[in-house]
Design a protein that fits this description.
Blueprint (H helix, E strand, L loop, with lengths): L1 H21 L7 E10 L2 E6 L4 E5 L5 E4 L2 H6 L13 E5 L7 E6 L5 E3 L5 E11 L5 E6 L2 E7 L13 E9 L2 E9 L2 E9 L4 E6 L2 E7 L13 E8 L5 E8 L1
Parallel strand pairs: 4-6, 10-12, 15-17
Antiparallel strand pairs: 1-2, 1-5, 2-3, 5-6, 7-8, 8-9, 8-11, 9-10, 11-12, 13-14, 13-16, 14-15, 16-17
Length: 246
């Protein structure tokens, strides 16, 4: 009898602990993390702190891409555009958020472009030949070489720039038909040169970024409109790699 009661006590305790774990999020809590799994309308998010959060999205869930380059890749965003690896934030709302903001899109993410048979990718330019008709780009850590259909597309680009490449199939080969900058525009809220950090407001949302190169903060002041590039680093750290006044 004692053994049965002990087993019952353990089972009851497990249920209580399980309920406590399940209620770790509350209705008005903001969640920031990275999408780990997408299974139809069910998503698993890994919070910056390490815990898993499960949510359900519907056709009524608003999806917003924060960075201007990402918005070019996803001009008509919907829940179908949510992919594993994307950094997101949302208000928990009992596991049914009404709005999901995508603040980070991995370089390897591809999106359907408006033109049939084309696609878009984020990449960092490694080199541009003198004629502007060929580029080398880092795509998710892999260097790739592409022919450029119109050399005018490379006129305003530079080595090291983060861009969105529109690719089309030409006789079995992928050719760049358009190059757009993938940087974001915002307003400086705070600058901390000592800690190498900057707070920038974009689309009404303030984000704190690390800055590896302190020189980027020279002549940057609160209230200035700036254009910047961000890289996702280990541990979810977001680092500004390019920063200039508008």
């Amino acid at each position: 009898m004692r053994q049965s009661l002990s087993m019952l006590h353990v089972a009851t305790l497990a249920v209580v602990l399980g309920a406590t774990t399940a209620s770790a999020q509350y209705r008005g809590e903001e969640i920031v993390g990275k999408i780990e799994q997408v299974n139809g309308s069910n998503l698993v998010i890994r919070r910056d702190g390490g815990a898993e959060v499960r949510i359900t999205v519907t056709a009524q869930t608003e999806v917003h891409f924060q960075d201007s380059g990402d918005r070019r890749m996803f001009p008509n965003p919907s829940i179908r555009d949510l992919r594993a690896g994307m950094g997101v934030r949302f208000v928990y709302n009992d596991g049914n958020p009404t709005r999901v903001v995508v603040h980070y899109v991995p370089s390897s993410t591809e999106a359907g472009a408006a033109a049939a048979g084309s696609q878009q990718i984020k990449a960092r330019l490694l080199s541009i030949n003198r004629a502007g008709q060929e580029i080398r780009a880092d795509v998710a850590g892999t260097p790739r070489t592409y022919a450029v259909e119109d050399a005018a597309e490379t006129r305003d680009t530079r080595r090291g720039q983060l861009v969105v490449l529109t690719l089309a199939d030409r006789n079995g080969a992928q050719v760049v038909t358009r190059i757009d900058p993938a940087d974001a525009v915002g307003t400086v809220v705070q600058v901390d040169s000592g800690r190498r950090s900057v707070v920038i407001e974009t689309d009404g949302r303030q984000e704190t970024y690390s800055v590896d190169n302190r020189d980027l903060l020279d002549n940057i002041r609160r209230g200035q409109r700036v254009r910047f590039e961000v890289e996702e680093r280990a541990g979810g750290r977001r680092v500004v790699t390019a920063l200039r006044r508008e």
